[in-house]
């Protein structure tokens, strides 16, 4: 019985450490302050130019873009309002995109994502969030 209790405690403590190490957007008002999942790595094109929100009407469906600005607020489960020098828009940030980083509205970030155009609507799905140092 003691072995089962000890094993249960060990498993539960490991799970709680994993959950708290995931990072996410921190504005002080969020109910969901941490994200549970992290994505694995991959190729990053450091030479890809930064796109501005004002260029939204030139984006093509399935185009990969890089936005740079600040995450102003969380407006839905995975939806966040971002702002750059040219304007604001709402993007969807996948849970794994945070990669363990905590981001506040004061932090400048690069957002790597993909454009999804459908039904006369443009959405951006962010796959990676990177703090600009």
UniProtKB/TrEMBL annotation:
Pfam families: BOF. It comes from the Bacteria. Residues 1-21 form the signal peptide. InterPro entries: BOBF_sf, CarO-like. Keywords: Signal. Gene3D superfamilies: Bacterial OB-fold. Coiled coil: none annotated. This is Uncharacterized conserved protein. The lineage of its organism: Bacteria, Pseudomonadati, Pseudomonadota, Gammaproteobacteria, Pasteurellales.
């Amino acid at each position: 019985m003691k072995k089962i209790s000890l094993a249960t405690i060990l498993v539960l403590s490991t799970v709680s450490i994993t959950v708290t190490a995931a990072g996410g957007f921190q504005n002080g008002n969020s109910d969901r302050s941490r994200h549970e999942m992290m994505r694995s790595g991959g190729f990053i094109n450091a030479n890809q130019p930064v796109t501005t929100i004002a260029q939204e009407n030139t984006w093509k469906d399935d185009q990969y873009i890089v936005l740079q600005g600040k995450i102003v607020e969380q407006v839905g489960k995975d939806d966040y309002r971002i702002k750059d020098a040219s304007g604001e828009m709402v993007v969807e940030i996948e849970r794994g995109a945070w990669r363990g980083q905590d981001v506040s509205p004061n932090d400048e970030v690069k957002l790597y994502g993909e454009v999804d155009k459908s039904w006369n609507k443009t959405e951006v799905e962010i796959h990676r969030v990177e703090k600009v140092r």
